Amino acid sequence: MLSSILLASWVFGMALASPLKRGLQAHESRAKPPGGYTLTGPAPSDTLLSLRLALVQNDAAGLVDTLYDVSIPSSTNYGGYLSKEEVEAFIAPTADSVSAVNAWLSDNGISSSTISPTGDWLLIQVPVSKADDLLDAQFSVFTHAATNKQTIRTLAYSIPTDLVGHLDLVHPTVSFPNPYGHPPVVYSPQVESTRSDYAASQCNISAITPACLQYLYSLPTTPATHGSALAVTGYVGQWPQRADLATFLGEYRADISPSTTYNLVSLNGGIDPQNGSAGIEANLDIQYTVGLATDVPVTFISVGGSSDDTDFTDELLDTALYMIGLGSPPQVMTTSYGVDEYLISEKLAYNLCGTYAQLGARGVSILFASGDGGVSGGHYPADGCTTFIPTFPSGCPYVTSVGGTINIPQTAVNFSGGGFSNYWARPSFQSVAVPAYLALYGSKPMDAGLYNASGRGIPDVAAYAVDFDVVLDGATEPVSGTSCASPTFATTIALANDALLAAGRPVLGWLNPWLYAEGWQGLTDITTGNNFACSDFTTGFEAAVGWDPVTGLGTPDYAALLRILGL
Ligand SMILES: *[C@@H]1O[C@H](CO)[C@@H](O)[C@H](O)[C@H]1NC(C)=O
Ligand SMILES: *[C@@H]1O[C@H](CO)[C@@H](O)[C@H](O)[C@H]1NC(C)=O
Ligand SMILES: *[C@@H]1O[C@H](CO)[C@@H](O)[C@H](O)[C@H]1NC(C)=O
Ligand SMILES: *[C@@H]1O[C@H](CO)[C@@H](O)[C@H](O)[C@H]1NC(C)=O
């Protein structure tokens, strides 16, 4: 007994003098660099890395159970959303986790700052040499063949054995940035629209306008004034031009004030210089939310940090943490950017997905464009094209993924992102819809082994996605992509939320359980068309009666949605 006490104090004494080299345990790894990256050399040992540390949340599973409980229409707690404090009680790391991680950092002479409301995310800065030592990593320079983009990452890292269960992940480590710079999912494919003779005069399908979408989806033009609000995210330096919005409203919404505009929130130095070099994506997203969701207050969240060494996932996290920190966040958030799922590590993907579960529990609907590469993720043939590639965050079950349509009557547009996640298994809300699709179409021989039919299917819904008129620098130009569809669907939900609030009812919150149980009856099922792959080995998936991995459950019919909601 005595000798073991002596031994213990001796070890403790050593720990004070110099960091105790703790037992390390492998935590995350990749067999090889993803899609088109190769290791081209060691990272300079003095390069400073900003590492984000996620602490294990005390009851993330409990939060998800509660999220389902308030989001399943048949639940007695349906619509009983949680307060900020109630969500934080699930998410905050335990005192044990906080002290274990802090002790490890201070033993190593590292100071940290807290970057999330509950302290589940910390930020540290360490040189490469120290990060290598601390995490038994090999931070190296990886270069992407087609774009020459260079990034410092490691193929594996470990954490101290005694931090397992306390430290969820360290980032950036094994998640890689999009080598193409995280472009928005705006796309100008050579798709030619056609329409039947009976299409109404409201629509010229070479130039989709708010009036056409109001006609197609029976969207109201009456002002929404009961407290519904909508957030639009902007990344990679994209910001909207207020003067272009005024021109757009003057041209297409003469019935509302041309001074109607958006509120700006800038995160991490996100810009809004109004100097005439606005982004087409941001202008699209703002013009088709402010211009369609009549009088719903729209907030544009301009997220900075798009320089080469930062990462899209950091921007997603910063956006979610901002929303989570609000007492009353906007009840709908739409994002027209995404990334191929395989670039992001599973742990990081799960953690980010958890931020959307937190927002869902607060009653926020999170919408993401499904992508413009059909079954081929970000449509980058240069990186090889051997399997179907699901997009992120669309694969996260707590977001609603929006695919695209074309023509009147509508059919699936062939660039509509769709397929099955490799990270999330089929969620319960898809337990009827997805097997029904697979039973009919799941056995196309040429697609065998190209996708993971046990995964969550995407998209959930769709909306028109071709040739939207967008004003940029005073001139009108056509824009296509699921980037058009997500703001359109988000607007529909924001308007429905306002009608619910007017009736004294809760907003729709996390949409998916409701959509698959009831909401589908307020959608127009799209049953024709397919999505393409980046090589000619397959035509992708077919649209079909019911849910399909091209257009989900279908496109909105606002009047029918209100009927389904009993309004
Ligand atoms: C997508 O559809 C358009 C017609 O709308 C066609 O011209 C184009 O070739 C198709 N793309 C692929 C990759 O199949
Ligand atoms: C439809 O829009 C296109 C593109 O803006 C335009 O060239 C064409 O004249 C329009 N057609 C009608 C009938 O307005
Ligand atoms: C507008 O401001 C941005 C950000 O400061 C800058 O990058 C861009 O060059 C400016 N454009 C013009 C036309 O001044
Ligand atoms: C397929 O998806 C499941 C989750 O549904 C996952 O556990 C599995 O690893 C995936 N397979 C591949 C090859 O990615």
From TrEMBL:
PROSITE patterns: SEDOLISIN
Major localisation: secreted
Manner of cofactor binding, per the entry note: Binds 1 Ca(2+) ion per subunit.
Metal-binding recorded as keyword: yes
One GO BP: proteolysis
Chain positions recorded as Ca(2+) binding sites: 525-526, 546, 548
Annotated ranges, domain Peptidase S53: 207-567
InterPro entries reported in the protein's UniProt record: Peptidase_S8/S53_dom_sf, S53_propep, Sedolisin_dom, Tripeptidyl-peptidase_I
Signal peptide: 1-17
Keyword Chaperone: no
Swiss-Prot/TrEMBL keywords: Calcium, Hydrolase, Metal-binding, Protease, Serine protease, Signal, Zymogen
GO CC terms of this entry: extracellular region
Organism, scientific name: Daedalea quercina L-15889
Protein name (record): Family S53 protease-like protein
Matching Pfam families: Pro-kuma_activ
Localization per Swiss-Prot or TrEMBL: Secreted, Extracellular space
GO MF: metal ion binding; serine-type endopeptidase activity; tripeptidyl-peptidase activity
Catalytic residues (UniProt): 281, 285, 483
Cofactor(s) required for function per UniProt: Ca(2+)
